[in-house]
């Protein structure tokens, strides 16, 4: 399988290379040259299989010769062994026709573990073969960073530097990043927003001399392997509700457009996904883009669903590339225009996007109210991101078509927002119960690429 950049000017890579590289050298994002498909019979055969087996079948065609079947099977088994639910991604019913897909049974209790745990295993395999050592650099609105640290802490040949916006992540998120004692873990509190962190990440990756010197590798949702791992649960969830024999809709709490983009790939692979509903909080660039055709950057307003406090949504570039008929020149132009604030999506591309994606936004008050409503209606306690999804999904349910809303984090990851809504402070799962007793270690840095570079050079353990 060959991987090409959305901007059309970077080297074509195989799966392993695209995974290790993250951001393409022309500034674009890697995507498979062709999207493999499954027949209805092949999808029907997923029914009742363990999550790991479906993962193996879905991931295999994207991997090519990079890993053998045995290597891949072993990596998948180790990736999900630490999850605390045997189904890995269980479904819970909320109402007639509306289901919740619980994606928070991994070690850092947010859906990011699905991809990051697998990437950790695949990186280890690739590094063992090449003998390289690498520096992982990530930017996080909270959950990616903790998931990456959990997946890479203590590994030989790897340093992991995670930038998070100082003061803008929840205390549980921060502590998950600052309490691991392993020497190769470096949490960096950046004076800025998540978008600043993401912009500095791109600066460092686009400095090719620096990038080569420290063997920079990226694990943000721009990394294709992350998107790939997230395709799997669309299949397991849809098949357990009757696909491929019927259509299934999904609503996805969205920030960087990685998780929902994975759903659109599942659809392109042959899964009968009807609508994919983009659910945003008050930081609603994606909702505005789909509603008006204008992708315009605003200012980030901190919210009670901080993992979605994003204005520049990296993976949207992948959806644009597909909607523009894989035209790298057109995508490059749009990304240039974005530097001065935004761009208009062409009529044709907008129409193509609207064939798959719908969208909605909810306010902070509606989010809080929905946490209380779901508690009253079902007894379930949901996190604020999930509540954004549930609130929007309720307005998009079609008769006869099951709706699945992705529950992206455990409520205990955002206890203040949940307590404000229902007066109950959700408890952390047992493996994290001592989180507030562990010592923290973090470094405050300016929102400045040069300072970040010197710090990484000085701190690397090799
Ligand atoms: C990362 C995250 C999101 C947004 O996911 P994207 O792939 O960036 O769209 C939503 N909810 C939670 C809890 C997250 O951690």
Automatic annotation (TrEMBL):
GO terms for molecular function: threonine synthase activity. Keywords: Lyase, Pyridoxal phosphate. Belongs to the threonine synthase family. Its cofactor is pyridoxal 5'-phosphate. One of its GO terms (biological process) is threonine biosynthetic process. Its EC number is 4.2.3.1. This is Threonine synthase. Residues 101-332 form the Tryptophan synthase beta chain-like PALP domain.
């Amino acid at each position: 399988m060959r991987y090409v950049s959305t901007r059309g000017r970077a080297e074509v890579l195989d799966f392993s290379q695209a995974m290790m590289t993250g951001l393409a050298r022309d500034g674009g994002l890697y995507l498979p040259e062709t999207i493999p498909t499954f027949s209805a019979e092949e999808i029907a055969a997923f029914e009742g299989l363990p999550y790991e087996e479906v993962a193996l079948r879905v991931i295999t065609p994207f991997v090519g010769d990079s890993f053998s079947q045995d290597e891949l099977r072993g990596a998948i088994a180790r990736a999900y062994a630490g999850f605390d639910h045997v189904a890995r991604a269980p479904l819970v019913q909320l109402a007639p026709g509306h289901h919740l897909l619980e994606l928070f049974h991994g070690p850092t209790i947010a859906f990011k573990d699905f991809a990051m745990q697998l990437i950790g295993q695949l990186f280890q395999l690739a590094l063992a073969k090449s003998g390289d050592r690498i520096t992982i650099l990530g930017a996080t609105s909270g959950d990616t960073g903790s998931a990456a640290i959990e997946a890479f802490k203590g590994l030989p040949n790897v340093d992991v530097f995670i930038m998070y916006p100082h003061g803008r992540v929840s205390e549980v998120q921060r502590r998950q990043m600052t309490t691991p004692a392993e020497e190769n873990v470096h949490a960096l509190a950046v004076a800025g927003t998540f978008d600043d962190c993401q912009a500095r990440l791109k600066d460092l990756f686009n400095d090719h001399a620096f990038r080569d010197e420290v063997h920079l590798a990226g694990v943000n949702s721009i990394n294709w392997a992350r998107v790939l791992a997230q395709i799997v649960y669309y299949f397991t969830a849809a098949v357990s509700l009757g696909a491929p024999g019927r259509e299934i809709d999904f609503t996805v709490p969205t920030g960087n457009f990685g998780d929902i983009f994975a759903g659109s790939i599942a659809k392109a692979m042959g899964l009968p996904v009807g609508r994919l509903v983009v659910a945003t909080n008050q930081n609603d660039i994606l909702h505005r883009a789909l509603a008006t055709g204008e992708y315009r950057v605003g200012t980030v307003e901190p919210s009670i669903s901080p993992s979605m406090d994003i204005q520049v949504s990296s993976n949207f570039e992948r959806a644009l590339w597909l909607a523009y008929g894989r035209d790298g020149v057109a995508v490059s132009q749009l990304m240039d225009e974005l530097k001065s604030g935004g761009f208009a999506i062409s009529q044709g591309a907008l129409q193509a996007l609207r064939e798959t994606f719908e969208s909605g936004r909810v306010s902070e008050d509606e989010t809080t109210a929905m946490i209380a409503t779901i508690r009253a209606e079902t007894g379930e306690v949901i996190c604020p991101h999930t509540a954004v999804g549930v609130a929007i999904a309720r307005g998009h349910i079609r008769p006869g078509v099951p709706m699945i809303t992705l529950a992206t984090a455990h409520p205990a990851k955002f206890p203040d927002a949940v307590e404000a809504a229902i007066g109950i402070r959700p408890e952390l799962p047992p493996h994290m119960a001592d989180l507030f007793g562990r010592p923290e270690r973090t470094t405050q840095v300016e929102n400045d690429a040069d300072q970040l570079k010197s710090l990484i050079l000085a701190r690397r353990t090799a």
